[in-house]
Records
---
Amino acid sequence: MPMQENAQRVAAPTVETRLVYAHGLAAIVTLLISVTFGILASLELLIPDLAGNHVWLSWGRLRYDHTQGIMLGWLGNAFFAFLYHAVPLLTGRPVTSARLGQWIFGLWNFAVVAPGWVLVLAGFSQPLEWAEFPVVVDVFVVLALALAIVQFLPPFFWRGLEDLYVSSWYVIGALIFTLLAYPMGNFVPEFVPGARGAAFSGLWIHDAVGLYVTPLALSIIYFVIPAATRRPIFSHFLSMLGFWLLFFLYPLNGTHHYLFSVIPMSAQIGAITASALLGVDVIIVVANLLLSLRGAGVFPRDVALRFVAMSTIFYLVVSIQGSIQAQMSVNQAIHFSDWVIGHSHLAMLGFATFAAAGGLVHVWQRIPWARYNARAIEWSYWLLFAGVILMVTDLTIAGIVEARLWQSAAPWLDSVRAARPYWIVRTGSAIPIAAGFIALLLGLTTGPRGAGLQSVEQTIGLEPVREIAPRLASAMSEVS
Amino acid sequence: MSRNAGRFVRMSYLVASVAGVLFFAMSVALLGIWPGRVLEDETRSMSPAHPLGLTVSEQRGRVIYGREGCAYCHTQQVRYLHSDMARFGAPTLAWETRFDYPQLWGTRRIGPDLAREGGTHSEDWHFSHLYSPRTLVPDSVMPPYPSMFDGSADRPRQGARDLVAYIETLGRARELAGPEGEAHARAACNCPNDEMAQMAFHGALNANPARARRQGAALKLAASGDLVRGQQLYLHNCASCHGLRGEADGPGAAALHPQPANLAGHEYTVDRLGYVLGNGVQGTAMQAWRDLSTDDLAAIAQAVRAFHVAQQEPTLPANIADLGAHVYTANCVQCHGEHGAGDGSAVGELRMPPADFRGARPSLAESLRALRNGVDGTPMAPWTGRLSEAELSAVAYYVRGFFRGGQ
């Protein structure tokens, strides 16, 4: 297909910038609230009597709200903001309806995140990992996901699938598979007891990361890199190979959360094998991404690209770590320890948050009327970078210390005593992290209107939006 | 791109998309539905015929356990690993979890696993621990739950009662199934050559080193331990209940029934301390301390014995001593035993073992106080109405003679 024709077809996309803005702001506000839950929970491990008589502030409830807020509030809204920007550019068509967008925004924030938080604090919840909001809230999540499919997927199918860019595939895959996996993780264990239910919980724990967070984060990375480096992605073939391997392998990982349990050994071994293979897949994906980044450096000048580049590196590290810790010899020692908490923060705070922040900054720069404070965002990047490294290193070492004590004959409490200095450092790491997120909020709400475009001009030079779209789509010409 | 190539790509994506959805379905089938069926069969064949479900109160407790995020620090799943089995007991079998809607296995262990917690600590220990964990376990990081109580640890509200009732069910079904249940499960497993599956049937069902047991071997402790280390260990592990000077006035003592032993008011033999530290005192909040090394326990024993200050106790005339023996034989021997070893004929019916006067000699004041007031929370009743002052003094004096100290 000639380039010109392609360019014409995607020439005039309509981006609903108000929806981008609304979801972007909601993302950062819910992020700050979720981080507050996390900081309070980490403080309560150091000062366990902190909450006093306020049962709604007790550790367990804060812990539930922390992860649900990050997953649905922060990442969910950030992904929506990105989709409102990217889907029209990827397809050349507007999303289905701006009015539907208002409904999705309202549902997501005022029927899911806010009531979910309040209900958990009030004592209505579900003690299942990555599914802590009560079942009544889950109903609205499923409804909102279904509406999101109506909102974002038709533009892709209007165009025909044959020249979809890889980001599009990730968006389609994420939305469809999340809608399938979410009810499995949130409803099934209520009806299937004990070990049988745990098998489904294991699937969902991994699907939440693998079918919802990872594909949408990768779609951002695949989008921002060519948009900011002005080069097509290194290899469309590797992109697609990585995509299909991801969707084949991720769902088969779930049981690795329950190794050495009564769940049949063949299922455990299958999951361990899939976990190892997943590492191979991630090497393929990241190699392709890093080759696409070549010349831009590890810390590119454009801060959105810089977030995304670091997200790529975090993705590689966290996935290789995951492949290793799913192996029985490692898992038997470090499972249940702070190592795993470090791992999940490397995934959600490192990989996913850096991708989401990169995507958010990228789309913000391109809203002509939005305020943008380049200095604050610079600060945000470096504070977050330092905070993540500190926290993950600290928790990883803590996990090894705990694992060693558990393997020994030492009393259980020795492992709690030994963890304390590491927990102090972990709470300390919240200072740069929280400061980084506040800087991100300032970066997107202060500064002159339209300064985002100026910042792009200074770092990589301006180009009309219509130039970006064909570059994303043109990858196809390399294979055909 | 030629027209044919376009069609080819379109077709291949269509095929891949269908395959993708099929793969997701396959993951659910392979890692969810199929293991579920295997586990269901296993549950049906290995479960005792009528396993005990949860009462309404226990179910309410389970809801509280879920709501407060207990499962996010305490797993409920002993893995097929020797390190897990040594600390907690037999690996969790599928049938043990058959009433768990939803499952509470957990993926993080900040506190210990609770799959076999039932019967490990006493009820008053749990109430005190829930109300204010650090009054019992100074280095614990568990959150307190004072709102489940009416102002103090010995006034639990419904929530605390339900929660403790639920905790007491953890591991209960398997314990009630007994050796017959184990044999049945083992036969149903029919897996003599599956090394891992066999692990479920080896070793102690409950290996928690804190679990009090009635019939346990006394630990042989060295007669002298490291006093300084002993005092440190005492401070971290014992002082919360027994008090800084062993006077049973630690912050955790208030809500315990019976009260912790007044260590300063007794003279202990090393053997007695070895027995209590190794086995706890069943039916009371005194847990066992098998997770500490015998060197550490000998050090603690040394520190405990150092609380006792030998005093000149009055000697009584012979006729009063005779009266003591007479009263003892008439009233005390059924529980405390002929030689004061706490092994009388009625012991089997008691919730907790009676005092062993051979291993622990109360001061005269302690002895008289127990006789006059009884010991709250134990079967030891006050004797003031039934014995005269002279008889009380005589028997209080008499029981001190059983002591086989010297070591």
---
Amino acid sequence: MNEQKTNLLNKLYLSVINFDVEMAEKVASDFIKGGFDPMDGIEGGITKGLKEIGEKFNKGEIFLPELMMAAGVAQNGIKVFENEIKRLGKERKTKGKVLIGTVAGDIHSIGKNIVATMLRVNGFEVVDLGVNVPTETFVNKVKELKPKILGLSSLLTTSMPFQKNVIDLLIENNLRKSIRILIGGAPTTEEWAREIGADAYGADASAAVVEANKLVK
Amino acid sequence: MNIPILEILSKDEVKFIKEKALDLLEEVGVFLPIKSVLNLMEDCGCEVDYQKQVVKISPQIVEESIKKIPHTITLYSRDRKNKIVIGGDKVNFGTVGFATRMINGKENHSLTTEDLIQLTKLADAMENVETIMAMGQPTDVPQNISDRYQWLISLENSNKPILCQAFGKKGVRDAIKMGSIIAGGEEQLRKYPDMCLVMCTSSPLAFDKEYTEAMLEAAKFGLPVFVVSGPLACMNSPATLAGTLILTTAEELAAVVMTRLVNPSVPMIYATWARTPDLSTGGVNFGSPDYALMNAASAQVARHLGIPSASGGIISDSKVADAQAGYEKAFISSILSLSRINLICGMGILESENAGSLEQLIIDNEIVSVIKKFFKGMQINEETAATDLIAKVGILGSFLEEKHTLAFFRNEIFASQISDKLRLDAWVNKGSKDTLERAREIAKRKIKEHKGISLSEEVHLKLKNVIKTAEKESE
């Protein structure tokens, strides 16, 4: 491989490992200027860094704050590449698009944010709709963005029923079969997931990733 | 002899924590999405941004509000034969209740109304449970009125003061209705409160509409309020214990100000649940020395402010009534007792407050017995010195048959109800039962033997009607 390309890929990898967002963005920009394929920049540089971060996390050598930092840096680097990919009229290949949000009546975001980050670290494209998301908005966004997975988060026993509402509304709109539904959040359980007709349940963020991987196979 | 109060902060540090909390309220303020309350706060001199729904509170207003808080709260038993005083240097113990699951041994299932009834009955039977925070949220009832069921089951199945959440104004009104039915009218309920309303802030610095409306409705009526602030370090509060403690203090002080606006002398409990995370999942890690540190410090801050305190001191993240549950609960409850948190909650809970357990309730009752006995201290005087007796019994003599021993042993010596103190072979001969098995057997027996309060058929019917009405209105 071209020496300059190797050099830049290595810098991209290091920027993720070292949580250096400025370096990630600059090197991504240089990589594009160098005429190299932006997809390679993501796969050979950023994703390489993320994989290592993910492994260290799974081994318990690093923890959430570090994971979130690294993922944030990676996201910023990827954005630079994605703009270029779009400009070239192409599309980035990922494991799949995941739509995620906290259901209506619930403003809790931390758990959802951790899941979103972990999914991104593990190769998914995640669109985060935020918190207190109306049921109709979930359905409209499914129609619009055609994700492979819809993730629904709820942290209150009083907002849990909205997870069911979303599923019911998807059925009503003939969209249920086009998507896989993954639910989670402190008061939710496997039993609840089965009861409301979800496809999977994530007891925590790591479990959510395991389930998401199963759902896209 | 007295067991001294454990004060882990210096006087300057307490001041520092308070000043920083006041700074936050003055410079950042709190989110409060209730226009009528924002109006009230503006009227008393606070700076309100109606668009952002944020109110900034000056230190002056906070100090004035603190002066109005009752230093102690008296809660009564349902039959009014007993009362407990929460505040000052006293330490009381009780349950806590947001559980949605039930754990029996290693089996678990979603918590049902029947589970809640069993937990409540056993809590009622435990001599060390002084207050019952509704021990779970039943999953087999309409979820939008599960609070009504929490109140109903707790009130009907125990004689002890009940602490519980309520969903909004309607939830509080229904709870007051139920309490008044049993008490014999609203005035009686006000005069002899056996209920306390639980609400939770949303860290950092936010007051959720439904919970806050409930808090203010209860305060207006005159029901004591229990304000839980439980930021999670690294997540919705700084990674530092000091920063998390300061955030808790700020949120509690904001609640002090708000409640004074609707009822200047309504009792409030500064319920501090400051916590740290499990760094792999972001979930809560209650059973940690950090919980002990922050909440011991909170006890000191609350006492300095003159506000009765509470915390989930008997707490564990274990999913079984096992060694982890034992050591986490024992350590934290010991530290918080020494620090004089006025109401230490958590008896009967596992999985970080998400699951109820009859076995654990028995074990926690024992932990509290141990703590209480420790706090009794030692009697040091001529009689207990017993040197005359030692002289009389003489060198290599026996004390077992002495009158002095008979007279003193019950008071002086702790007798465990559930710990096994036999020699190994004796223990084996009795079936090699571990703590879990022994606790299970005791739980079964205690529930069977317990004679709880009995309310009249008329009262039961009236209470049922409150639920029926709530169901109709919620459809």
---
Amino acid sequence: MDHPTLTHADDADPRDRGGTAQPLLIARDLRKHFQVKGGPATLFGAGRAAVRAVDGVSFTLFKGETLGIVGESGCGKSTLARLLLHLIVPDAGELIFDGDTVAAPDGITVRALRQQVQMVFQDSYSSLNPRMPVQDSVAFGPYVQGRSQAEARDIARDILVKVGLNPALFGPRYPHELSGGQKQRVNIARALAINPRMVILDEAVSALDKSIEAQVLNLLRQLKRSFNLTYVFISHDLNVVQYISDRVLVMYLGHVVELGPVDAIFDRPLHPYTTALLGSRPSMDPAHRIDEPPLTGDPPSPINPPSGCRFRTRCLHAEPICAATVPVLGAWLDRESHVAACHIQTPGSGHSQAAAQGSA
Amino acid sequence: MDGSHIATPPLVEVDDLTVRFVTREATVHAVNGVSFAIRPGETLCILGESGSGKSVTLRALMRLLPPDRTRITGTMKVDGRDVLAMDRRALGAYRGGLASMIFQEPMTALDPVYTINQQISETIIRHNGGTKAQARARALELFELVKIPSPERRLDAYPHELSGGLRQRAMIAMALSCGPRLLLADEPTTALDATVQIQVLILLRRLQKDLGMATIFVTHDLGVAAEIADRVAVMYAGRIVEEGPVAEVLGNPQHPYTQGLLASTVHGQPRDQDIQAIPGSPPDLRRLPSGCAFGPRCSQAMLACRTIVPEPRHPAPGRMARCLRVQA
């Protein structure tokens, strides 16, 4: 298992089991609720409230693409990332990695999943062992997976070069001796050292300065090509998501509200929340400032979220139907499908702005 | 600094401010000769990356830096008063009275064991006197001013009972409680969600206009500066490298660092091309390079840039850049 060189991508990946048409990852109805004590309606232990962090999320991740996941704090995007790696075990739902169900008797084990899926976290310092030189941190993954110490060290030195760090200079350093951008490069190297097929980047560039963020984004794009990777890119920064993603998934309070190709989402958003999120971006042009905020108030708490459509409490188009029934995302077929969970988009839903049944 | 408008005297005058943090091991050169002036009603955005000295400048103006480890030189005048010469008593009246500050993290800036009303009332009574009932009435007014829904109920809430956006509004209300003439804002919207950030920015812009305060707004986000600033000062390694009206600095940057910052900020670049990142990383403030601090990362650097610290040059009225390439 040699690492592919930086110059050419591995077109026919020997690890590919399902073929190019088989999605790399299918998530079906993933659910994770966290029990909390108390909560507004259940004071003094009269019952237990739950944070419905991820509440029935389904999507498909195609091979070789970058799927951007956006949403505000508390929407469940980081919980979703951890569910994909079984760092948090889902309460319900199914994960299918390249045709094999994860943690099922006839599927692949979580350990096998983690040999193919790696993750980079936001806080570059706390995800490295402070008492280990960074080269040893990078070598640790291959070593745990059965390489000899010498082999693991060679892999680590090799991969450090590929993320733009000179192993002779930076390898022996400890995390506190590196800048934020350098630490994040080490974390990327650590994720890539075991030669994964998929990398989950959870706000991986959010803590970096703009000039460093640009360097790391360029590096991520280059590594994706040369290692034939598939990315799940989680961020609250819409500009960065627009730049790096092929498709985008928008989350609100534990639900997927919109899913589609990046240009479709940014040019023709279907869900009122996506429209508001896009309209909240600072304009970058002092001559065209935003005068009216697209939304008022904060996102509600994911403990006891609103009934029906969870966005209805902040939505300008909310009608009684929105409180009564939960809108469904609709079916997506391929990479080009653009769907939204909104009654306005569902013909015959009963919303006054929706098309009549059968006409759409 | 800005010779074209001399109608109103400046409220804030900072001249050749330097701040050093001295420890046994090293001396950190955090701010290295910063000068600027702000007139009443004006918003200056200090734009820079981490370690550029933008927050240290703001804290120096409020005298919030630890006195035993900090060496401050230069002059800072607010409303004609010398901030560096103030004793404890004068500082107590200055902070929260003439000038007040809002922070990035309202959860750590507010006291968790007192209600919001207790904290705002304490400030009001401390500066203006009066009874608790009068202070509460003023706090209620302020809550309505910053558009907190159901203000009566929220006044008696503890900080942890409010959402992030409401906490930040409560902190703004507290900062405005004694009618400051200068508002210092240190990344007040950075920790907020996108849909909440724009609400707070619009609120701050409106309050600043209605109340006629001068504002210094520190941010690392070009988009935030474009939304709120009248003028922008770009800081790098403890110096202001470029200054001017916001539209001109963002539209026609003169300093290579400002140009690089604009090019490396992701906003609608084509997806199939690399972003033009600035190579390298900011200098170590314990060992600043000689000459221009940006020189080692600058694509247009000349031999002279290694030895000469560029003096301010004025390519147009109201504009300043510290770069040898800029024609004065």
